Amino acid sequence: MNASVPASQSLAKLLAGFAELPRDVDVSDLTQDGRGARPGCAFLAVRGTNEHGLEHAPQAVANGARAVLWEPAPSAPVPDLPSEILVAPVEHLREHASAIASRFFAEPSTKLSVAGVTGTNGKTTCAYLLAQALERVGRPAAYMGTIGTGRPDSLVASSLTTGDAITVQRTLARLKSEGADGVAMEVSSHALDQFRVGAVSFRTAAFTNLTRDHLDYHGTMDAYGVAKARLFSRPELVSRVINVDDAFGRQLALDPRGRGRLVVTTRTHHSHLRAASGFVRAMHVSLSTTGIELEFDSSWGTGALTCPLVGDFNVDNLLTVIAVLLDWEVDLENTIRALNGVRPTPGRMETFGGADEPLAIVDYAHTPDALRKALQAARAHCAGRLSLVFGCGGDRDPGKRPLMGEIAAELADDIVITDDNPRNESPAAIAQGIAAGIPAGKPFRIEHDRGRAIREALLEAAPGDVVIVAGKGHEDYQTVGLERRPFSDQRTVVAGLAARSRARPVSRA
After folding, report:
1. Is the dihedral of CA 334, 339, 340, 343 positive or negative?
2. Is residue 148 a contact partner of residue 158, using CB atoms and an 8 Å limit?
């Protein structure tokens, strides 16, 4: 049997305190996905944002589910199901799903040290670096997030930053069975709002920053912030690591609902240092195309390290990781040694070419703040022209599109607007939304074919120029309508640089 799926269990025991059942049955697994139902499992039909899981109950039963638990909701009729299937309502099932799954998988997070990293930008880099660093100091660790799941050197692709409640618990159980002692987990605002990590026992919650994103879901920045803040008031927390250079971070640090000791990160001399149990502060920073040299002060002593990350904003990410490591009683010397040897995060300011070729950078920046920081970081390494190839995702916050167009016009010399993941929106309408933010007189062009846009930008660039391809980062697909088409910015850039070397090179000498 799969180590992450335990033996059959009493459904009544799993639901104790949440619901009374007309009769008990043993279930062999749990799922929220009707397509993934297996013989003997229980299907949890929760109320979603756009649909109710009950719509998929017949499929789950056809695949072998022996029980259907459903969350009562207006306009969600229970379909006719065979009489031998246990069908039971469970009030607030979405809120309880994490606890039900935690019980089924024997509460895996209580046997692990779990760090939850939240914030608009920086989650992936912080969590990935933390998992690597823990491994390098002899503490077996895994990563869960946008670029995959597993030990840092053997990630398995995942489709969401944070999976559904059952997937999260199943994954934690699997990682524990595979030998992990620690887990660095990205925690999205959606996951917090939808209770997907409700029963995860976090040792540490870490905050990076809060800037505009996901307003198509949360509606307002206040609601977005409230969702993020939920992670820091959890009673099981041993510590909170908070970037107090961020305005919302300062609010979090002073929030009386916060739990666990407070460790703050900063580049300045914030008054918040006096209220904190610990701090990590950048003292001197030097940037190059090969990495960051950082000298820092902390409650644990002073240190200096060199890390192969590009971009000034990654200093903040490094401070967060240093703070978690020191708080987790990794000594200063080993913390420095571990971070000196980490690998850059795939698709996060990932560099290609350079020297006698243009420098190409692939980055996941898909918010106004992230795009600004990526362009500012790229400019620091640009002796010539800075070109930007980017788009915006469809079916997502349209209000950020003109903002990103405005930032592109301010910071890039050459702009190519292309398709990101258009999903069910018109690519032309998305591009026009971006273009609306570009001032009259600033040249740009629209090339919907993302591959062609990248190749042409590289062909037109000269040595000393920088071409930044933003928005998709590590993704190896492009979503058009309901179809996921194979596509990789990284592979396209590598092929484009090779094609450029075969063509007559551009020179601006």
Report:
1. positive
2. yes
% of the chain at pLDDT higher than 70: 95
**Gap between the Cα atoms of 57 and 31, Å rounded:** 11
Closest CA relative to residue 438, chosen from 401, 403, 409: 409
CATH 3.40.190.150, applies to 9-103: no
294-309 mean pLDDT? 96
Q: How far apart are CA 344 and CA 308, in angstroms?
A: 6
Q: How many CB atoms lie within 10 A of CB 59?
A: 15
Q: What is the 3-state secondary structure (H, E, C) of 314-337?
A: HHHHHHHHHHHHHHCCCCHHHHHH
- Average pLDDT for 251-262: 94
pLDDT(377) > 60: yes
- Summarize the confidence of residues 451-479 as an average pLDDT: 97
Spatial neighbors of 344 by CB under 8 A, at least 6 apart, are 308, 309, 310, 350
More confident residue, 225 or 363: 363
pLDDT at position 90 = 97
User: Residues, the chain, total?
Assistant: 509
CB atoms within 10 A of CB 439: 9
Q: Which CATH architecture has domain 350-502?
A: Alpha-Beta Complex (3.90)
Q: How confident is the model at residue 458 (pLDDT cuts 50, 70, 90)?
A: very high
Q: Which two tokens stand for residue 306?
A: 């060199």
Q: What is the pLDDT of residue 227?
A: 80
Q: Is 45 helix (H, G, I), strand (E, B) or coil?
A: strand
Laid out side by side, the sheet with 350-353 consists of: 350-353, 359-363, 466-470, 386-390, 414-417, 445-446
Q: Would strands 445-446 and 350-353 be described as parallel, antiparallel, or unpaired? A: unpaired
CA angle 36, 105, 142 (to 5 degrees): 90
**How far is residue 22 CA from its own chain's centroid?**
41
What single letter denotes the amino acid at residue 238? V
Secondary structure letter of residue 504 according to DSSP: P
Query: How high is the pLDDT of residue 228?
Result: 85
Q: Is the pLDDT of residue 240 over 70?
A: yes
Question: What pLDDT score does 1 carry?
Answer: 41
Helix intervals (H) in 15-85? 57-62
Q: How far is CA 60 from CA 33, 97, 397, in A?
A: 8, 17, 33
**CATH of segment(s) 106-340:** 3.40.1190.10
Name, in order, each residue with C-beta under 8 angstroms of 98's C-beta and a sequence gap of 6 or more: 165, 168, 169, 195, 196, 197, 198, 199, 200
Q: Which segments of the chain belong to CATH 3.40.1390.10?
A: 9-103
CATH 3.90.190.20 location in the chain? 350-502
Position 412 pLDDT exceeds 80: yes
Q: What is the pTM of this model?
A: 0.88
Indicate whether 435 pLDDT > 90. Answer: yes
